Amino acid sequence: MATTVDLIPLPGKVEWGATSGPFTGRVRTSLDPSLAAEAYRLTVSPEGAEITGGDDAGVFWGRQTLRQLRGLDAFRRAPIEREPVAVPYLTVEDAPRFAWRGLMLDVARHFLPKDDVLRYIELLAVHKLNVLHLHLTDDQGWRVEIERYPRLTEVGAWRRRTRMGWGDPPMWDERPHGGFYTRDDLREIVAYAAERHVTVVPEIDLPGHTQAAIAAYPWLGNADVIDTGALEVKTDWGINPNVLAPTAAVVSFFEDVLEEVLDVFPSRFVHIGGDECVKDQWRRSPTAQARIRELGVAGEDGMQSWMIRHFDRWLAERGRRLIGWDEILEGGLADGAAVMCWRWYRGGVAAAKAGHDVVMCPQQEVYLDHVQDSGPDEPVPFGWVHTLQDVYRFEPVPPSLAGTPHAARVIGAQANLWSEVTENRARVDYQVFPRLAAFAEVAWSALPAPGERDVAGFERRMDRAHYARLDALGIGYRPPSGPRPWQRRPGVPGRMHDKPRRPWHTA
């Protein structure tokens, strides 16, 4: 199949007709409850196309397959060819491997305007990805309007300058940077995504990665051990010691925040971060230590666990589910929480074996802010080298879970783009594509084990058809030959990991 029709992601069962010919433009759709959720059956014949879905999403994904069969004009804003396009006459029966097929966009470190977010929703749909995880808050910026607390955006959405790369001494872009989404902006994003069967999952990070909020409301921080009033929205990168105070008032504040978030985002899952919470200030804070004694929890890790459990219950009471980074395992995991596993596979394996749902997004495999090649022209090289081929070999279910009942707890996979050095749409495009196409196939298709995957076949499909689709869509991807001159960033220093990546089969 792959040698004849260059579809991405690779569909399931394909039955070929005897011929190919012009597409009439006629499309009939229907639902068949015997098909699984998101599954579809597509038949293309001289009479047109017929798409049967297990649900509306299945019909939509069938349309995406038909879109690829129809050629490049289907990806342009307006057709430029006058003649009907020739399509193969065939039948495709297809269904996704995973229910959660996601991309995380960090819009906190560098703000991405609303229209760019809408554009990425369309690009997710093209690749049959169905979750957009928006990282809305961090030390470097607060991007969601909260009417009850206006200073979160009046102060927290703006920083006075931005570090460029990771050099020593640091380099600075002295221009102020910021922006935020109004509640109506976010409602528009959610509605646009829903039309394309993409769920938008918001992330409000706590108790760490909160300096922008503390800069807006200093009483949120540990004011008994540091001068929180002197804190500004963070201009640098890295793990930050300035975290929330674990008081009842702070917890109430974030309940108020989340009430407004739930009013905008109907998604079942709500992400609360929970990662990289440095607890040094809690150890020194009399207020925090008194709170630990009051609650009877086991030290600072127990304090963080209490906060995660509290918001897990709070969300469950409102019909939602908490998901967080794998640090939420520390001190004990809330019963209903799901885990997003980013630190290799360890946390995800432990969570799955303990009966928790897991989304796999290990930084060693699918962090798209990491460099794509070891060559000297890569812009602001960071992390490990993740080539297109490396991403295609990513396996969301680690060997220690494969073939066990726990494997079903891996509900999906996600690629993550952190935005320390993706300051605009062009930089985002370069980091995300073409690797997101490889990730989409891994998340959708039933592929062989990583060592047995047809990497060469995937590359042929990219070369023969999919790069041209990306061109038609106007995506500034990284070419296979390396960055174009205008995609380089000479003089901006990067930071590469000094330890090699571990092979997937050690997970």
UniProtKB/TrEMBL annotation:
Domain Beta-hexosaminidase bacterial type N-terminal: 18-95
Record region (Disordered): 478-507
E.C. number(s) listed in UniProt: 3.2.1.52
Keywords noted in UniProt: Glycosidase, Hydrolase
GO MF annotations, alphabetized: beta-N-acetylhexosaminidase activity
UniProt xrefs under InterPro entries: Beta_hexosaminidase_sua/sub (IPR025705), GH (IPR017853), Glyco_hydro_20_cat (IPR015883), Hex-like_dom2 (IPR029018), HEX_bac_N (IPR015882)
Listed Gene3D superfamilies: Chitobiase/beta-hexosaminidase domain 2-like, Glycosidases
One Pfam family here: Glyco_hydro_20b
Gene Ontology cellular-component annotations: membrane
GO biological process, one term: carbohydrate metabolic process
Residue positions of the active site: E276 (proton donor)
Keyword Glycoprotein in annotation: no
Domain annotation Glycoside hydrolase family 20 catalytic: ranges: 98-446
Residue ranges with Basic residues bias: 498-507
Catalytic activity: Hydrolysis of terminal non-reducing N-acetyl-D-hexosamine residues in N-acetyl-beta-D-hexosaminides
Keyword Hydrolase found: yes
Listed transmembrane segments: none
Family according to the record: Belongs to the glycosyl hydrolase 20 family.
Record-given protein name: beta-N-acetylhexosaminidase
Organism this protein belongs to: Actinomadura syzygii
